[in-house]
Design brief:
The protein is α/β, with parallel strands linked by helices and 251 residues long. It has eight helices and twelve strands. It has one domain: P-loop containing nucleotide triphosphate hydrolases (Rossmann fold, 3-Layer(aba) Sandwich). The strands form three sheets. Strands 6-9-10-3-11-12 form a six-stranded mixed beta sheet, with helices on both faces. It has a four-stranded antiparallel beta sheet with strand order 2-1-4-5, with helices on one face. The chain has a two-stranded antiparallel sheet with strand order 7-8. Strand 4 and strand 5 form a beta hairpin. Helix 4 packs across helix 5 and helix 5 runs parallel beside helix 6. The two termini are 36 Å apart.
C-alpha cells in the first residue's frame, strides 16, 4: 500500500510564507478532507503536492513511499500516480477532450505499453454517460464553452480514466447545483478502493455528505490546527470556524 507524506513543509510565494510546518500522511484506501476559511492555504497545499512552479518549498519534503518527489516535474508526478482535480480548469482551444485524455492515459502507461483506442473509446463514453456529460463531449475542445458543472464533471472523468494512486480534489463542489454535486459526490465515492488515497478540499459539509472522509483536518493561517472525524465536520457546520480560530490562538 503506497503512501503520500507531506513532511514539515513550509511554502512561500513572492517572499511571503503561506504554508507553515504542514505534516500530513495519506495512505491508499484513506480519504482525508481539508476544511477551513477562505485564503488559508488549502488550494496551495494541493498545488505544491502537484508541483506548481509559482510556489517555493522553503523547508520540508513531499514523498511517495519514502522517495522525495520535489525534483519531479508535474508530468513526472502524474506518472507516479498523483492527480489534481482543479478548482478552475483551464480552457485549451484546438485540443479535443478525447485527444487530451487519451494522451494523458497513454503517457501514464508509458511508451512501452500500447493503449487500445477502441477499448478506450468505450471506457470514455461509458464514463461520460455515468457523469451525464451528454453526446459530442469527445469532439469538443477541452473545457471550451463548458459550463462550471461540465468542467467539474470533466475533472472527475479524467480522474476515473487515469486511475491515480492519490487524487487531490480542490473544491470540486464550488459552483455546482444540488443535482450536480450529488452526482459528482456519489461518483467519487464509488471510486474509493484500497488503491486510491483521496484528499478532498472544501469549505462546506455538503460534499462530505457523499464523500465520507476517514480524517478531517482544519487549516487556519496556513497551518493544520485540528484533526478529527465526522464530529468535527458537524461542529463546523453548526458553529463555523470561530471556535477553531479561538482554540488555535489560545494555544
Amino acid at each position: 500500500m503506497a503512501k503520500l507524506d507531506i513532511v514539515n513543509v513550509t511554502v512561500s510565494v513572492e517572499d511571503s510564507i503561506i504554508l507553515r510546518d504542514i505534516n500530513l500522511t495519506i495512505k491508499q484506501s484513506e480519504t482525508h478532507a481539508i476544511m477551513g476559511p477562505n485564503a488559508t492555504g488549502k488550494s496551495t497545499l494541493a498545488k505544491i503536492i502537484m508541483g506548481h512552479p509559482e510556489y517555493t518549498i522553503e523547508a520540508g519534503d513531499i514523498k511517495i513511499d519514502g522517495e522525495s518527489i520535489l525534483d519531479m516535474t508535474v508530468d513526472e508526478r502524474a506518472r507516479a500516480g498523483v492527480f489534481l482535480g482543479m478548482q478552475n480548469p483551464i480552457e485549451v482551444p484546438g485540443v479535443t477532450n478525447f485527444d487530451f485524455i487519451k494522451a494523458a492515459v497513454q503517457a501514464k502507461m508509458g511508451k512501452e505499453n500500447h493503449l487500445s483506442v477502441g477499448k478506450f473509446i468505450l471506457r470514455f463514453e461509458d464514463t461520460a454517460k455515468e457523469l451525464s456529460m451528454g453526446k459530442g463531449l469527445s469532439h469538443r475542445y477541452l473545457n471550451v464553452g463548458f459550463s462550471g458543472g461540465e468542467k467539474k464533471r470533466n475533472e472527475i472523468l479524467q480522474m476515473k480514466l487515469l486511475n491515480p494512486k492519490f487524487a487531490l480534489l480542490d473544491e470540486i463542489d464550488s459552483g455546482l447545483d444540488v443535482d450536480a454535486l450529488k452526482q459528482i459526490g456519489e461518483t467519487v465515492s464509488s471510486m474509493k478502493s484500497p488503491t486510491l488515497g483521496l484528499l478532498v478540499i472544501t469549505h462546506y459539509q455538503r460534499l462530505l455528505d457523499y464523500i465520507i472522509p476517514d480524517f478531517v483536518h482544519v487549516m487556519i493561517d496556513g497551518t493544520i490546527v485540528k484533526t478529527g472525524g465526522l464530529d468535527l465536520i458537524e461542529r463546523i457546520d453548526r458553529e463555523g470556524y470561530d471556535w477553531v480560530k479561538k482554540d488555535y490562538q489560545d494555544e
